[in-house]
Design brief:
It contains 20 helices and 14 strands. By secondary structure, it is α/β, with parallel strands linked by helices. A 4-stranded antiparallel sheet has the order 5-6-9-10. It has a 3-stranded mixed sheet with strand order 1-7-8, covered by helices on one side.
């Protein structure tokens, strides 16, 4: 047997990468991680990023899945330079099959059907029975003895190439120089290299990424909680955050930086720093990254997105909330603090957590009591003293100015004794932002009205 060393470098060619999904189901973030890495590598080297829909499985391929792939990539901003459907390239596949058969490098094999009505002929590649060695950009040198593969099938018939053959012909004729894909494809690579050699083509560089795993270290899948990209969009995630997070699934920049714009990723990404071990998909980390991206978007976009999300809820419509944008503008820090995604607004509205920003609350007398306090006259006295502090404030005061006025009283009488009934009188909620923040948002006049209403309920 002869040795095949790694192929000639593609360093003098334009870098061309591809993302080649099958439209046989909704793809999850683990699948799109391959697209992200391929896109970043191509853009970093001033190359091309190709999208190829591998739709030759006619029974399972669905138009809606292809549309979802296109929609997802467009939303993420992973713009392709060229687009192909594998099913539209059948004549090219046939041409290469016929050439291989004519050259004796492939042959029509008579088969004994495994079941009644089964195939009696397939097309097999004549295996040279050699060791194939290639250098993976992530894993280093890999060597496989292909003898055990035998003369393997490359087509069911002259018009029905199988995956390995169609992929090789497409990648070669599209000029793909670098194939970035999951490590579960490593076992496919020796077969594909033999096909490249059979058609007289230079095979590309390979980079096999670690698998994306769930929290239990099982391969990520739709059945294990992974969502389609469009579902993350519906949940109010930002595309830049998804790309940022997916880039960190298996890659580390070697610095403390974790939040990247897509342009920053293009500059920083390095295939040689991709780890070999499995990458864990952690939605908590994804939510944290999204929260950081939400903080970084322009204020006008933040306000308009929040406004649209809240305005479309039935609760906001039923309660005739108006001037939502101006409320959000005043309370943007409250929103930044309490939400990771724009979808969190749906739950906040549903749980009445935002009502106090738009309308005076219905305050429970019992809720005004701090811990084990039972004497309502003491509660009323403490709230009255807090009101006196608030009354000294200008209409538009900052959180710090408000805190400087109220905290000396709270330190003297007790923080809970003063701050709890004050906050509840303003929001009507057991859990809400601190009273200084709420007063800053509501303004002094509205805050005094609410405190007065709460005091009336204590009489």
């Amino acid at each position: 047997m002869t040795d095949t060393s790694n192929n000639t470098s593609h360093q003098n060619k334009m870098v061309v990468t591809r993302f080649a999904p099958s439209p046989t189901g909704l793809l999850h973030a683990g699948n799109y991680r391959t697209a992200v890495f391929s896109y970043l590598y191509a853009r970093q080297h001033g190359g091309k990023f190709i999208l190829r829909i591998e739709d030759t499985d006619k029974e399972r391929s669905k138009k809606e899945y292809e549309e979802n792939i296109m929609d997802s990539l467009n939303w993420l901003g992973l713009k392709h330079d060229e687009f192909y459907r594998q099913s539209e390239r059948s004549e090219l596949h046939r041409e290469y099959l016929e050439k291989l058969i004519a050259s004796g490098k492939a042959f029509i094999s008579k088969e004994t059907p495994k079941e009644p009505g089964g195939r009696t002929e397939v097309i097999r590649l004549k295996n040279p029975n050699k060791k194939v060695k290639f250098t993976d950009l992530i894993r280093g040198d890999i060597e496989v003895d292909t003898t055990d593969l035998g003369d393997f099938v490359i087509a069911k018939s002259i018009t029905e190439p199988i995956f390995h053959f169609a992929v090789v012909v497409d990648d070669y004729t599209m000029g793909v120089t670098h194939i970035v894909r999951g490590e579960d494809h490593i076992s496919n690579t020796p077969r594909q290299i033999l096909i490249y050699e059979a058609i007289g083509a230079q095979y590309p560089e390979y980079a096999h990424l670690p698998l994306v795993l769930d929290a239990k270290r099982a391969k990520l899948s739709k059945r294990r909680g992974a969502l389609a990209i469009t579902e993350y969009r519906a949940k109010g995630f930002l595309p830049a955050a998804l790309i940022n997070y997916m880039s960190l699934m298996g890659w580390n920049p070697g610095t403390e930086q974790e939040i990247f714009s897509t342009n920053e990723l293009v500059k920083a990404f390095d295939l040689s720093k991709v780890q070999k071990g499995g990458a864990i998909f952690d939605e908590k980390k994804l939510r944290w990254i999204n929260k950081e991206h939400v903080r970084r978007i322009p204020e006008a976009l933040f306000i308009s997105t929040c406004t649209e999300r809240i305005a479309q809820t039935a609760h906001a419509h039923d309660r005739s909330w108006t001037h939502i944008d101006s409320v959000i503008r005043k309370a943007k820090e409250i929103f930044h603090e309490r939400m990771d995604t724009f979808g969190d607004l749906d739950e906040m509205v549903k749980n009445n957590e935002l009502d106090y920003l738009f309308e005076p609350p219905q305050v429970s007398t019992d809720l005004l009591k701090w811990k084990n306090q039972t004497d309502l006259t003491i509660v009323a006295s403490n709230l009255t003293k807090a009101r006196e502090c608030v009354a000294t404030l200008p209409e538009s005061s900052t959180k710090d100015e408000i805190k400087n006025i109220i905290m000396p009283l709270a330190e003297k009488i007790g923080r809970g004794e003063i701050l709890w009934p004050l906050r509840v009188s303003l929001t009507g909620l057991e859990k809400s932002p601190d009273p200084f923040t709420v007063i800053e948002v509501l303004g002094t006049s509205e805050s005094l009205k609410r405190i007065d209403s709460a005091l009336l309920s204590l009489k």
